[in-house]
Amino acid sequence: STVDRDNDEWANSCAGYAQSFGWYGACCNLCMTTGQGGWPGGSNPYHPTDWNYTQTDWMVWWGRYVNREAPRNEPAAAGLDCEDLLAADPRARDGIYWIDPDGDGGDPPFQALCDMANGGWTQLYAAYDRHAAQGEWALSWNTVINRGKNADDPQPGQNYLMPMRYWAQLGTVEMRSARSGTILLNDFSIDPARNYRMNFTPTGNGRMDYHRGRDLSTVDRDNDVWGDSCAGYAQTFGWYGACCNLCMTTGPGGWPGGSTPWHPTDWNYTQTSWMSFWGKFRRPAVVLNTRNDAAVDCAAILAANGGARSGVYWVTLGSPDRFKVMCDMNTDGGGWTMVYSAYNSESDIDAWALSFDTVVNLGKRHDDPPDRANYLLPLRYWNRFGRLRLTSAASGSILLDGFRLDPANNYRLNFNATGNGRMDYHRGQNLSTVDRDNDSWGNSCADYAKSFGWYGACCNLCMTTGQGGWPGGSTPYHPTDWNYTQTTWMVWWGR
Question: pLDDT for 141-159, tens place per residue?
Fold first, then answer.
């Protein structure tokens, strides 16, 4: 506060009374000068009063500038992330480096803090109680997504946030705290299309897992399930339910997790002196042919080149379009094209709650087939294949020969009998989605399970389980395979 700007907590102006600038509450112990009548700290007005509330003959302050770390590489030598840089130079030390998570042609490189001693982790977020104050993390949606905090000058020991738009490329995150050590989030994902929803493989820590499938909220955008705004209350962004165990900052009065407000609270609901998040980015898929060399499908690629490797290729699937698909060139003769994949790390209430038009014409992540993430090739391309190979972590694989979808009859599913009664139950069933009910149940199976599928009343093979884990398991919205078994992942291939 100064004599012309009152920022204290007193009803009047401490700076006006003491005739001095200062960091007042109501009013001061450390006072640049005492006020009228020598108040406070002594008998003589306008004399310096030190940090012991004692009037003194003189008071002098001295400073020493902190050495700011400079980047250890140049922008032209930026790596994908810190792990990439460490792989290129195993002798690389901790420090600040230029990185470029989206590679050439996207956003320009930027600086990040690297932990090389523990394997090349890139800092994503850091909060320290010595910097805790109301409003310190009260960042707008646009700031969290696009600007971050101290993102242009990351330095050890300061509050920091890498802009959230880069987090969508992460594959693994390690959270660290002074109180609780570390916790690892595998198969980590952020979905920009759904309010930057966070998902990861369950950790077994109930407090942390509470935040799986939660949308990001900020002080100006409330996406939680509480009646009020958790982000507004805690004055920070976060993936809230109603409200948080993992809290970027505590709320008024230290709620939750501690007694002091505006301090970081970790995944054990424990107030801590510092908390930081570190990540490793997914490696972008190397496309093994060019767009101009797009083949009809993976089988055609393998037929033309018997040594073709598994990976991502440009194909047409007999259409005028050109797009990338994942090819398995090794299993059962090779030449398989991935058409669908589901992972429990990305399971939540509407991961697969897609409309009929989306399932048929748009798919999910169709433009860039991911590694170990949810994916759907639009159904309009599936009739290119006469055989499907369904695979799951729980049940191995099953082949569907004579595969066919009938677009004229709600994409009715047909295939030759497999001898597996649960799988064969779905022969002749029409496609249902959350917005189009074509099943034989009195209600909507697709709406209950929050997923498209070829339901009767309702499913054995389920893209996701329904509410309460029904059917096939105890956890809702996880893939359930052709043996009515909840599984950690399920992938379908066509040839």
Answer: 999 999 999 999 999 999 9
